[in-house]
Amino acid sequence: MFEIGFVLFYGGATTISSLAWLAGRIPAVRHYGLMAVANGMCVLVAVFYAWTSTSLIAAVATAIFGWLWWRNGGGDSTRRRFRTWAAGFQGVRRTAPSHA
User: Fold this and answer.
1) Which comes out higher in pLDDT, residue 14 or 76?
2) Is the pLDDT reported for residue 42 higher than 90?
3) Residue 87: per-residue pLDDT
4) Which of 59, 85, 92, 93: CA 20 to 30 A from 69?
5) Would you call 32 helix, strand, or coil by DSSP?
6) In whole angstroms, what is the distance from residue 24 CA to residue 26 CA?
7) What would the 3-class secondary structure string for the chain be?
8) Are the C-beta atoms of residues 60 and 27 closer than 8 Å to each other?
């Protein structure tokens, strides 16, 4: 019974997101993010039920949509946080100075 509910949810979520994106109601970045999350949930369920083909396809789709989301500006705030976090680290010379 869970499988039917999951298939209806997954199919409905991806269909509604795709139609909203095609109609211009949501931007492409948001569509890519929603599809990455939906496919990621599909991976978890497919691994739990040992659906190897489904888990492989969903994992590839998750990676592609996640990459599209990240490359099209979806991860801008995450990138800013990484930059501010990395700015606190300073390079330190680890080798001994060579004096002649």
Assistant:
1) 14
2) no
3) 78
4) 85
5) helix
6) 6
7) CHHHHHHHHHHHHHHHHHHHHHCCCCCHHHHHHHHHHHHHHHHHHHHHCCCHHHHHHHHHHHHHHHHHHHHHHHCHHHHHHHHHHHHCCCCCCCCCCCCC
8) no
What predicted TM-score, i.e. pTM, was given to this entire model? Answer: 0.70
| Residue 65 CB contacts under 8 Å (≥ 6 apart), including other chains | 32, 33, 35, 36, 39
pLDDT by residue (tens digit) across 58-90? 999 999 999 999 888 877 777 777 778 877 777
Question: Helix or strand or coil: residue 15?
Answer: helix
Count of positions (residues) in the chain: 100
Query: Which pLDDT score is estimated for 51?
Result: 86
Q: CB count, 10 Å around CB of 38? A: 20
